[in-house]
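Journal club side-thread
Mid-discussion, someone asked how the predicted structure for our own chain would compare to the paper's figures. Pasting it here so we can look after the session.
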Amino acid sequence: MLGAGLAASQARAADERPCLPLPDEYRVSLAVREGSAVSLVEALACLMGVAAVRAPGTADRPLTVATPSPVPLALAVVEADRAASRAGLRLKRDRKALRITCIRARSCGNSTATGRPVRVVLRAPERIAVVTTEAPAPSRAVLDDPGAVRRVAPDYHRVSEDVRALARLDPMAFVSEGAAWPNLLGFPEPGFFITWLRPGGFFERLGLRAGDLVTEVNGYRLRSIADAFAAYGALQEARVLIVRVRRGAESLVMIVEFGAPGP
């Protein structure tokens, strides 16, 4: 009950920040060719840790924007805004959202052209987030595939290689599966509280619950957002994840093995 209560007390902050914000030491590389403007805003908003908001009547349009070398996130947003302005759109950043609106209200809603999906690929060892239309990845529909997760034993699941590839090449795909936020109080111990899970979704099928406190993955302690990104980079090639979870007064160890689901 205590864990669930602490998670609920932080849920509003998590709702305001649907994704974990990119740590300050990361840089952003833009490689978007004829990409969807709406999808680009969603990707950048996720890296900022804020909501993406599309003004009513704002049509999607294809954009092309590239940076010759990685830049700070704020500059990447400026570059994206310049590309958007050439298509009659404007990006506006505030504390809670990255908003996309029309520059010319009369003409903005007339376009029916939409661009290619934009993905974020995290190159954690180099501390670079690549915002791109060029990264092929498995379909996000794999997360709903009943065969993607197979229970081998209590707290032991086998997950398909497609899910592992999706985690490496399109980590934003997991945003709609659940939300977690650092335990700001550090009590009963540091970690990430799971504030929400999609009912019947991927993480719920792994045995996780809202209110769980995830404290460690393969020996990497999760005390901050920077720790979470560092663990992600270190574990991208891992074949097995050992996840330590506190559920109320109970301490659990969950095992996730990557490989073709089977007996």
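Post-session note: The two ends are 36 Å apart (CA to CA).
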